Amino acid sequence: MADKKLKQKRRRPDPTSDDESELPFKNILKPDQAILETLKQLFLAATTTTTAAANGASTSSSSSKPLTLSDLSLSATCREVTDLSLSAVQSTIETLILQIARSILAGNGFSFQVPSRASSNQLYVPELDRIVLKDKTTLRPFASLSTVRKSTITVKILSLIHQLCLRNIHVTKRDLFYTDVKLFQDQTQSDAVLDDVACILGCTRSSLNVIAAEKGVVVGRLIFSDNGDMIDCTKMGMGGKAIPPNIDRVGDMQSDAMFILLVEKDAAYIRLAEDRFYNRFPCIIVTAKGQPDVATRLFLRKMKMELKLPVLALVDSDPYGLKILSVYGCGSKNMSYDSANLTTPDIKWLGIRPSDLDKYKIPEQCRLPMTEQDIKTGKDLLEEDFVKKNPGWVEELNLMVKTKQKAEIQALSSFGFQYLSEVYLPLKLQQKDWL
Amino acid sequence: MPIGAVELPSRGHWAPSFAIPRGRSSPSPITKTKSPAEFFAENKNIAGFDNPGKSLYTTVRELVENSLDSAESISELPVVEITIEEIGKSKFNSMIGLVDRERVDTKLYDDYETEKARERRLAKEARAQELQAKNAALGKKVKEPSATKGAKGRGEASFYRVTCKDNGKGMPHDDIPNMFGRVLSGTKYGLKQTRGKFGLGAKMALIWSKMSTGLPIEISSSMRSHNFISFCKLDIDIHRNIPHVHLHEKRENKDRWHGAEIQVVIEGNWTTYRSKILHYMRQMAVITPYAQFLFKFVSEVAEKNVTIRFSRRTDVMPPVPVETKHHPSSVDLLLIKGLIAETSKGTLLQFLQHEFVNIGKSLAERLIGEMGPEFSPKMAVKSLTSQQIVRIHQLFRQAKFDDPSGGCLSPAGEYNLRLGIIKELHPDMVATYSGSAQVFEGHPFIVEAGVSVGGKDVKQGLNIFRFANRIPLLFEQGGDVVTRTAMKRINWSSYKINQTQDKIGVFVSIVSTKIPFKGTGKEYIGDDTKEIASAVKVRHCPLVLKFFVTNLTSKLTTSFLQSAIQQCCIQLKSKIVRKIQDREQQERKRNLSRYVPDATYAVYDVLKEISKFHASKKRRYEEEEEDVLRKVQSRSITKETLKEMLAQYVEKVDYEMALEYATQSGVNEEPREAIYIQALEDGYNFTDLHSSNFVFRFIQ
């Protein structure tokens, strides 16, 4: 389809125009103005649909949110958590602890009802386009060998969170772990119980005042306030601004960007940031360097909701790339209890898609054969509802599993390091080649 | 010599003449005929004589396996004594009549120490001594200074006298020189599961001794019927491939001993192959629990001496493997030709019917009909042309035959394998499994497996013991199908076995008329000249063996292997689960109580905080909660109260659970195992104390 496009001379003021022949497809690039036009359409479409939806919602009901779990009459009851204020968290913990204390004093030991976060207790709701948690719970009694450790850790974490509430401070997960290394043994255990506690209390993890270390970064046409300081993300140097772990202190987002570019990997992010891609095509570039953490997901959602920008994703052409995409879009199974706050609807898969490998003639030596594990993951993904709902994705994934080839974003570097920012992305945008 | 170009046949059709051109690129008209002995002398690595260390190892195992075969062939419980005696250089020199010479020109030698090196060494030694003195003064445990590694230069070869004595069949007096002194002079072999027959092994040891020490081999032998011992001292004329007899005489046989004793002096390396040799002996003891081994290493340095006795654990011996005829689907062209040359049958029909298994008369007739018009049942089999033989071969490949039975095989037996494992490893648990006979390419095979957990002298993780036709395989474990199966294809954790923490023993024994070894042309050395085309031997597959790795065979056998190991694991799982439950029962209270303080302190901390704020009446609580908070405030409820209550609760729960467990599981006893008491040898006087039910018998 690329060849059918009208060929036009490039008129971009660029000293490298004489090496056109070296970069494939460069000659079919339209001038930036034309690409910007297409982007504007995308931008307008995104804002109008959201506002329309918002208007529609506001006319039908008073809530401004498009759709919530309670609006659907699902057969299985689902569990969702909400943001709770500190005092609410505190009083919930107190009630729980008092219950436990009374149970102990009555000579009955104690136990917790913990919502199960196993995959059997997850449900993909197509109407919401995200994973939610069903209402199954498991009993966590103290008087059982298999759960004694976990129930003790749960009490301990509850008591620690209670302290945080009293003092009104934030700590990191790592801090929490170091309060009793002997009991927790390793951080994964205290982290897992922390999510359990959020489920038990029915609040989001951020309302527990426990944050994760900064992982995600953002750069581009965005201005926001972090704890009262105004941040201009165009003036953050090459590395960009670290996404603040406590989203509740972020506000006043402003932007003249036309879209948000979600990048899977640090390497591609650095390339785009250094080339100031966001100045050529006004955008905001975000990466979580691999699997996204809670803060990045919250931040992305906040941007999407407040700025009403379309989100385009640039991930590797392998099952894990798609998986990461799905975590942004539909939520992870581990955090499904809070999927309402963590997911960003309507993310478009820009690249690198399996069909791009041939379309952009990526050389054989840059493609990697998929391992058995990869193929299995790919096939499993095909069974997932959030993939099935998008026929374009199914097609791409089928192609990947069929050709048994994968490629990383870096594969494009075989045409030169800047091919990604100079040719591939502009061309993709020009052709509206997203799913 | 371009041995690389010579494809070693995978079965036993060794080209009878050793006419090998001198050069590949310029074939000279004069070809030198090599004697088989010469051939093997030059290519001793094929037989496992790569280096002195390995040669020592191979010599030991060849002799041991010969002994076992010999004893089993006359259904005698084997008793094998093997002694390795280290011979120092001066002793060796005196043995061969060489005068020990002192070094005069010290700089001539490789291990000459220059002035500087000497200074450095002395300084280092002084430092070490100082450190040691310091440590000793501080009362630290001082590790004995490791014996200074003797300057073992390359020139310092070690020599060993290897003696192996058995209670086997012995050898006919007149045959002894030829049995040892002529390579490839074996008798005719049929198709049979074999550990090895009296063949190349001992001869290779002889060739190696000739090459490294020049000393002759000494053989004593006596057969059951004989009243004398044959003694023979001989070496081999490598170029002419004939024995060179020094002494051949009959001696008195006072003890009515029968068997063979072979003594050979070779160059070797005990230090590097010590563990291999000991492993070999141990594994041999596992797979042959009905044999008794006495292994001795004798050295001039007393602390290096090793004596290990592997005692007999059972009287039950596996049956002697039966010789069987070839299965039509397993033969190749050369083999058919060989069989035709040998057969005593006249007609084609008779030939097909009698020289192969699973071909009856009617099938033979149908086969001949299918071969074509130029074949007839009555035609003389020796008159078949080469093309006709090819046709027969093709038909054999395509036609469907019944599978050969495993009746000709002699597996170690589940019972013996189990006893062997128990005897040598003393595991906590053991499970064994014996598969039924399976067939691959016309050769029957049986897979037996054992899995043990725990034990003495077993390292953590997987310990793999491989046996092929009842001999241990020690080398190239990594590529072996058993290793791969155990590591990759068995999900140990699903059987409650921890692959890295538990001491797991995996034992796999495969017996077959053909073990699909894989290796680099080193698998097999033909053992016969021309009469035979089919000796399927295992033992002469020298030790560099890879054991079916990637070919078809592996796929087929792997599944049997995997299921065999899994069967064992399933048996073990129930035992392990029970054991874990037992342990949980015992440790439950302790494990639960351990968490009582942590849990109660955490609860109490929160309570205390609440009660503080409660004083300021910020929040309303229910009456009972109020009550608790008041008590916390007035310190009538403290940390200790909570702790006590929870501890009481744990005690209660523990009691209830123990009761429930006891009622559920009942009193169960481990199945009893028969013990084996070794028979006393003759020559004791007893005092008997008789009672109505039993007799006490005391050795005087």
TrEMBL record, chain A:
Function: Component of the DNA topoisomerase VI involved in chromatin organization and progression of endoreduplication cycles. Relaxes both positive and negative superturns and exhibits a strong decatenase activity.
EC number: 5.6.2.2
Recorded superkingdom: Eukaryota
GO BP: any one term: reciprocal meiotic recombination
Catalytic activity of the protein: ATP-dependent breakage, passage and rejoining of double-stranded DNA
Gene: TOP6A
Subunit structure: Homodimer. Heterotetramer of two TOP6A and two TOP6B subunits.
Name the record gives this protein: DNA topoisomerase 6 subunit A
Protein's cellular compartments: Nucleus
UniProt record similarity statement: Belongs to the TOP6A family.
PANTHER family in the record: DNA TOPOISOMERASE 6 SUBUNIT A (PTHR10848:SF4), MEIOTIC RECOMBINATION PROTEIN SPO11 (PTHR10848)
Organism listed in the record: Citrus sinensis
Statement: the UniProt record of this protein carries the keyword Transmembrane helix: no
One Pfam short name: TP6A_N
GO annotations of cellular component type: DNA topoisomerase type II (double strand cut, ATP-hydrolyzing) complex; nuclear chromosome
Classification via SUPFAM superfamilies: DNA topoisomerase IV, alpha subunit
Top-level EC class as recorded in UniProt: isomerase
Topoisomerase 6 subunit A/Spo11 TOPRIM domain: residues covered: 259-429
Active site: Y178 (o-(5'-phospho-dna)-tyrosine intermediate), Y178 (nucleophile)
Domain Type II DNA topoisomerase VI subunit A all-beta, first and last residues per copy: 214-250
Cofactor(s) required for function per UniProt: Mg(2+)
Start and end residues of each stretch annotated as Disordered: 1-24
Basic residues bias: start-end ranges: 1-12
Binding site for Mg(2+): E264, D316
Keywords noted in UniProt: DNA-binding, Isomerase, Magnesium, Metal-binding, Nucleotide-binding, Nucleus, Topoisomerase
UniProtKB/TrEMBL annotation, chain B:
Lineage top rank: taxon: Eukaryota
Species annotation: Citrus sinensis (Sweet orange)
Protein name: DNA topoisomerase 6 subunit B
